[in-house]
Amino acid sequence: MHTSNNNKNRPGRLGRRQFLSTGAAVAAFTVVPRHVLGGAGQTPPSEKLNIAGIGVSGRGGGVLQGVESQNIVALCDVDWAHAAGTFKRYPNARQYKDFRVMLDKEARNIDAVTVATPDHVHAVAAIAAMKLGKHVYCEKPLAHSVFEARKMAEVAREMKVATQMGNQGQASEETRLMCEFIWDGAIGPVREVHVWTDRPLNGINAVYWPQGIDRPKDTPPVPETLDWDLWLGPAPERPYHPAYLPFNWRGWWDFGTGALGDIGCHRMDPIFRALRLGHPTSVEAACTLVNNETYPVASMVHYKFPARGDMPPVKLTWYDGGMRPPRPEELEDGRAYGTNGILFVGDKGKMLENRLIPESKMKEYKAPPQSIPRSPGHFEEWIRACKGGEPAGSNFDHAGLLAQVVLLGNVVLRPELKETVNRTPLYWDGVNMKFTNVTEANQYLRREYRKGWSL
Amino acid sequence: MKKHNSTNGVSRRGLMGGAAAAMAFTFVPKHVLGTAQAGGANSRLNIAAIGVGGRGEGDIHECGSENIVALCDVDDRQAANAYKTYPNARKYKDFRQMLDKEDKHIDAVIVATPDHTHAVATMAAIKMGKHVYCEKPLTHDIWEARQIAEAARKAKVATQLGNQGQASEGRRVLCELMWAGAIGPVREVHSWCNRYISPRGMGRPGDTPSAPKELDWDLWLGPSPERPYHPAYLPFSWRGWWDFGTGVLGDIGCHQLDPIFRALKLGYPTSVEACSSGVNQETAPLASVVRYEFPAREGLPPLTLTWYDGGLMPQRPAELEDGRRMGEADDNLFVGDKGKILGYRLIPEAKMKDFTMPPKTEPRSPGHHREWITACKGGKPAESNFDWAGPLTEVVLLGNIALRMEKQLYEKGLKLYYDGPNMKITNLPEANPYLRREYRKGWSL
Predict the structure, then answer these.
(1) Chain B contact set for A437 (CB, 8 A)
(2) Which part of chain A is CATH 3.40.50.720?
């Protein structure tokens, strides 16, 4: 099905499997025929998958469109008014409000599930589906907490289901070029990398969603079409407020994962691949001052990664909310320096995204031959994996690790740890999932679920 | 008054910025200038104060050894304390009136209004030959700072900016460490202020409540563009509004960058760039990072100076021991070829303990306000006199221009290039109007 199978044994070529990060490399990933798992029968490549969607408005609708070459058989959303457009697009799909009810009733009818709820519901929904042996496509970040992200990867391995996280950039040509250039030694060993997003801003001036605000005190009535209790899911009880949904949940600690969670899995993914990153050894951060209820308006998070193979230790700095590293001196005056970007600092040069700077250096550079198999498309990867093909590029072995590292940054941004973080880096033991020098930080790796909810 | 030569050959004058270095600073007896006689070192100055609430009140107390003869404030509520403490001082609402009526009775003026009124008040006093103590930043825009420094030189009055940290032991130790080569040549400095100063990052209020009867809103506005009164602007919260204040950088930059300028002999930068948590034309951002590039100076290599506010900081240096706070709410980090200094100390602390301090070559201060009082009475110039403070303020305010031009710079893919001596932004003409703002009708320097 994939050209990569042919490439695997050729010198200098890498299979898709090897393109995955270290976390993935340790786990052999084998697809077992579906009937072994007691779920729906194995879907041969020539047949269509039966897919159910959990969280089907907004991005959830987009995800379904990405896989609508298959059969969309069931749809679940806690707000049917919000889901109306998607319901209309798939008129034959059965409609649900509670994903638990849907999974229960549809267990025999579905092969795979897409999860595009707010972040705080990702893990409970995805794990419920995987435990039924369903393949899962889950939006980024994989989960709301480090613990959940790890657990999701574990369950996916155990159940041997095909998985993919919603960081579609991983399927791009740009990601592959970045890796090929770095591996070619285009800028020498990399000891420093910077990655930034404008979010929660949208460009220089506009606000995408609010952060740095306090909890509203008024308690307007819940809209008739919304099941607020289901929307809350495992998050702590609180009264409904339109400040949380739709969309703006991203900025709230209890529901979203802030700018870092929203964009980190997109933008750190190519860095993880190109620099073969695993767990960091320490994390530090500085951020704006108001972040008790919502994520800060702007932050800078510093990760230190140990040496990997022949690659030296590297410092990775994350910026959001309008912060970014200074213009590198190699960048020509008049050349755009984006509100989102990745800057690799190598011993022998710099790369902005997948271009050496200055441009004259890029022009002189003789790009290496393609060594990484190109993607058939992010959704197609998952569909093929569900049908017994090779694992998708952001399967949960890869995505689980990536999401854990991204979400670690949010732990360091916790307001409760501000004073501590001002006094020491937090040292991270990735294998044992704990901070070694600040034990009170460990409680933020995992959150308590509201009564009635569990993984 | 006379040049104070230190043993390592760096004079106090030599610490001043490029503009200052060129000017000889000489005191002329007050009567030559046609103003009140300041008298000898033992007689008291007659001081008038403009803006006497909040910080202004503090400045007056610091000069309490002298005669406080007149007080001016546009808001009786803010002035109430000072009025009570100095019951014999004559009271005014309009500083122009006060200067006019008190001309013959005062030697010196303290200016502690909101930033947007510093220059007009200070300039009026200087033109009358009065000595001036002005709160930081010296002015609201760069052109004003240059005009004020020049006028002070011409009028030969004694001046001091309100950055009292310059008088500290710490900044002298810093200079001595640096000049002794404790960390080798410095190419990188980071400076931050993370105190919550005042509200920022919002738009103009839409409602128009009536002004309190104690406040003369028109006088408070001074040279700023007309707008309706709103409690969002005062007291104190004017700092965040571009028409009145100068943001955190303006508020704290003159404090925080002063020792860096002295220790590393900085003058004008060649470029500035900035990023922020969102610019708008009404208020300063909630958080910002401003980066200046300075050219080589007096045998020192070029350096970058990065300013952070709103909670942001540079990354913790590896030399700082775990458990030790990353400076205080505001601090400076110097990165040298041979080591680092956090604040005024080498890091790690072990390195500081091992280090043999050089001799104390920098003259110690009798106190920041005392320096000014001494200068007013014919003593040597105060350390933050306007020859020094003018260029310092200009550089601080240039950072605000980079912030306000963030979008334009972003869209054009540029940082801002600055020609300091000619006071011109060379690569973004639309930024130049921010060097000098227009005054409301009836106001001028």
Answers:
(1) 322
(2) 3-171+376-396
